[in-house]
Specification:
Elements lengths: L4 E2 L9 E6 L23 H15 L15 E3 L11 E4 L6 E5 L3 E7 L5 E7 L1 H6 L1 H9 L7 E4 L9 E3 H8 L9 E3 L4 E4 L1 H11 L4 E4 L13 H4 L13 E7 L3
Parallel strand pairs: 3-4, 8-12
Antiparallel strand pairs: 1-2, 2-13, 4-7, 5-13, 6-7, 6-8, 9-11, 10-11
């Protein structure tokens, strides 16, 4: 059975590979009904592990460094840090060992820097982590010239679906007045936020010139997992929602 994997519309050399997943597959339990790759969301753990194994086999890669993502700015590194580390970004310099992030509305950002010692990275940028500087911290951990870096913005909540309060707008604008352009008023004290534009502003300010992607909406595109679309039960508990992966890795090709 083919896996629900897609390749970003991103020109990369033959020695660099990227992929992202979407939901539909028959391995996960009926409540999730999809190719869920997260063990922490209530899905059957054995089914999730099977999905992860199938992912590795299909792509011919080592197991990703599965992180405990906490909406912060800590950056892990493949080969240095162990699994389940509390971090929201990961760097890889090793062949066949991907930098990978799980999301379900938050923004996944993939990084690549060429050179004699190429390096890749992936960051989980929910609004809190994005505002706190997770993208900038990822660039620092890559230890490269930002002007040489390329980035791809993966599937996230789109600008017509991401309603936030004044406190979110203020958090960004207080750091950078230009962020005001990423918010559209949507009723008293509410705004529609463009998380893609907020990420572009941050990356450009950090010196990254090449940014592609950013044309998805996990909420309106049902092939993707969306925490917001899943909503809550009548008891106020979050309804089942899996996580998709965005990943990038180096090969010896």
């Amino acid at each position: 059975m083919s896996l629900p994997l897609l390749v970003p519309d991103w020109e990369l050399p033959s020695s660099v590979h990227a992929a992202y997943s979407y939901g539909y597959n028959q391995q996960s339990s009926a409540a999730y009904g999809a190719f869920n790759l997260a063990t922490h969301v209530g899905d059957d753990v054995a089914a999730v592990r099977e999905n992860r194994q199938r992912l590795q086999m299909a792509l011919g890669i080592h197991e990703p460094l599965w992180l405990q993502q906490v909406h912060g700015t800590v950056v892990a590194e493949v080969g240095r840090d162990g699994p389940d580390m509390r971090a929201d970004a990961v760097v890889s310099r090793q062949i066949g060992r991907p930098a990978a992030i799980l999301t379900a509305d938050c923004l996944p950002v993939l990084f690549y820097c060429p050179g004699s010692a190429p390096v890749v990275a992936a960051a989980h940028a929910g609004w809190r982590g994005l505002c706190a500087g997770v993208l900038e911290q990822t660039l620092l951990a890559m230890a490269v010239n930002a002007a040489d870096v390329q980035c791809w913005l993966g599937p996230a909540i789109g600008p017509l679906a991401f309603e936030v309060g004044e406190e979110v707008r203020q958090a960004f604008v207080s750091c950078d007045a230009a962020a005001q352009s990423a918010f559209i008023e949507n009723g008293q004290g509410k705004y529609l936020a463009d998380i893609y534009e907020l990420a572009r502003l941050r990356l450009r300010a950090a010196g990254v010139p090449q940014i592609v992607g950013g044309d998805f909406c996990t909420v309106s595109e049902p092939r993707f997992y969306s925490y917001r679309r899943a909503g809550s039960s009548s008891e106020g508990q979050a309804n089942p929602c899996g996580r998709q992966i965005s990943m990038i890795w180096l090969s010896s090709d």
